Amino acid sequence: MKRVVPGILLAVGWLLILFKGSPAVFAGVLVVVAFWAADEYVRMAGADRFPLLRRLLLDGIMILPLLGTIYAGSVSRGAIFGLLLAFALLTIFIFAVYADFPDGYELLCRMVFGSVYLGVLSSFLVALRYLPDGNGWLLVLSAVTAGSDTGAYYIGRAFGKSKLCPAISPNKTRAGAWGGFVFGIVAAVIFAQLFLVRPQWGFVVFAAALLTVSGIVGDLTESVVKRGTGVKDSGHCLGGHGGVLDRIDSLLFCGPVLYCLLVFVK
Predict the structure, then answer these.
(1) Cβ-count burial of 192 within 10 angstroms (0-12 exposed, 13-18 middle, 19+ buried)?
(2) Other CB atoms closer than 10 Å to residue 95's CB: what's the count?
(3) Are 124 and 259 in contact (CB under 8 A)?
(4) Mind listing the pLDDT tens digit for each residue in 94-103?
(5) What pTM was estimated for this model as a whole?
(6) Phi and psi of 265, rounded to 5°?
């Protein structure tokens, strides 16, 4: 129940935002989610030693590419400008605290990575919402990640023996990965039928297959971060689901992939 109830609430809230929310509402909610995830990342990366206001400052710097995309209405202009500004501000921040902390270079590297990981990648979710039929594709994307997570969890528990990447994530199995792959494609087909206008089925299946793989890579990437920082979950605000970053790690990697497919391939 600790996993089921929060999962249902998250799914209902997300669907309501996509069904009923305007692009502005979606962008506002995404900023809140990204800021929260940034705070989890900042604490994992070692900035929990800073006073609250400094940590919140780092959280805000981290999502500047997302804010730039919302302001400019374009991921190509907004995210690049936001990333450059974030890099400049992070460098100044490290200058200001360098005398008090011996690991300034390591902290700078982690914060710059976080700006790309959270700020730039989340920008593509807003960019997807701005596309024609973007709302429908966001629903398909959500179905792919949810279906893949569900398939990986239950198939992995039932049949998983061979580990997928034991050095990174010892609980993930090859059977779970295949289960997530199949469930993700099935979920994409169902939601495409429901929410897309005249879907091109070859493209839908191809995109879903690529997105399930991207979601697994996103999940493993967060596992690398957690391994490197010595934490089990990014947070505990979502009960059995861990933290916010634990829930959006797949979406962060899938968003740019789907955006590029829709803009450059479809």
Answers:
(1) buried
(2) 11
(3) yes
(4) 999 888 777 8
(5) 0.91
(6) -115, -50
